[in-house]
Amino acid sequence: MSLQDISPQQAKQMCDSGGAVLIDVREPAEHSSKHIPNSKLLPLGRISASDIEDSQQNLVIYCQKGMRGKKACEKLIKDNPKLKVFNIVGGIENWEQCGFDTQRGQSTVMPLDRQVQLSIGVLLLLFSALTMGVSFNFIWAVVVIGSGLVVAGSTGFCGLGRVIAMMPWNQRA
């Protein structure tokens, strides 16, 4: 089966009718701070078709904005082409904008994409300042960071995102 993008309305209808399992592919801390009720947590970095209990069930996948969800769907289909997987376009943010319920926890954590953006911004500012004030050789760090952004933008793979996802604050549930 191929990847199918669906709207939050379609996803809600599938789940309400009992025709789908809802899977959150964000990190544990993101899930514990806010998630769609009755969703199962299977983070993108560890998701596998072997985690799926009923391979005949429709799987509705979501993340924060839709990109990790799409990657999770692609990975599951690669592991088992017979799986029926659907990605919620716009993730949990779009789900909430449609007025559907989310369950909030006690803790709050910054979404992974914003953690990555903040980290890159801080590193670029730091190495730019070091380039101007200490040594021009620090420009190579700016070049490496910029190259990483080009790779992430063109391939969808973000190494920094993977590293930040493994940080302890993102693993706490």
In helices, the fraction of residues equals 40-55%
What is the overall number of helices?
Answer: 8
- What is the rounded Rg? 18 Å
Rounded average pLDDT: 90
CATH hierarchy class name of the largest domain: Alpha Beta
Keywords:
173 residues; alpha/beta; Oxidized Rhodanese, domain 1; five-stranded parallel sheet; two-stranded antiparallel sheet; elongated
Account of the 3D structure:
This is Rhodanese-like domain-containing protein. The protein is an alpha/beta fold and 173 residues long. It has two domains: 4-104, Rhodanese-like domain (Oxidized Rhodanese, domain 1, 3-Layer(aba) Sandwich), CATH 3.40.250; 112-171, no CATH class. It has eight helices and seven strands, in the order βαβαβββαβαβαααα. Helix 5 runs antiparallel to helix 6 and helix 5 (112-133) packs across helix 7. The longest helix has 22 residues, at 112-133. It is elongated, with a radius of gyration of 18 Å. The mean pLDDT is 90.
